[in-house]
Amino acid sequence: MPNNAIVKALLSALLFGVSTPLSKILIGRTNSFLLAGLLYIGSFVGLLPVYFWREKRAMPARIDRNNLRKISGAVICGGIIGPVLLLLGLRSACASAVALWLNFEVVMTALLGWLFFQDHLDSKGWCGVAGAFLAGLLLTASEGFGAYLPALLILGACTAWALDNHLTALIDGITPVQSTLLKGLIAGGTNVAIGLLISSSLPAFSTVLAAILLGAFSYGVSIALYISSAQKLGATRSQVIFSSAPVFGMLLAALLLSETIGPTQVTAAVILLFSIWLLIQTRHTHLHRHEAMEHIHSHSHNDLHHDHHSGPEVINHHTHLHTHPAIEHDHPHLPDLHHRHNH
Question: Global pTM?
């Protein structure tokens, strides 16, 4: 697997993982819609300087009808439905439990990838998915019967995010930063509007500021890193690595909220880490054909797909609109932007 994509997925997981216990602190100060909106507005605010500094002139957005459908689905599922269901679940469950329940996102991403998005897995991969699912079941059972309602809410959030994962991994007309900016602005604005309609009072300025600051890193930077990783590894594998986020959240919940980490939670975390290791071991190769295509994404010229110019960019990663001619070849590959095909 590309090492830089793995590192990006891990950094994305770390940044998002800390958002669960920190959101638990903020959730009692405002309603779920308003907090979700502020977190996504924060992602927009946090990445806006990056866009003006690095991407505005060099990389204008190119949104055709196909990419527009993907962006719209990602915004609705990942930016509106998912965060609200998560915050509703947080209201009636401890943050450490919710942190590990978020592993269901791995399962839903794998299932949807296999059913609809041509994201292949071998036997090791499916064992890894099963392990992540087992970790979630262990934690749910340890919380008792009253935990099943919030667990179902988290499962709904994970399903919405699984759809978001696959859709954003296939967006090839804009950069990860541009995609995250669009999601932050539209999803944030929508949720804030709904939150203001149902709220009897506005949150304190300190709450608004804290939510925006948290959203800038735990949503904005995290999502941009995840999209960049998913475009190279495929949504399922990136999500497996990203599933380490709940472990970071569980540890921070213990430190900040004095929540107890028991043997069952430790066992679930160990199973999860082993599951991640299994999925990283997956390999896939066969003769396949690429049709001619034109798209935008970060790439270097030391692989079998990008040889359209020479110079320092051959090794360094860079982003621009480029065209691929039709080609047929055989090599180990992942379900990235170039390898979504039947096998």
Answer: 0.70
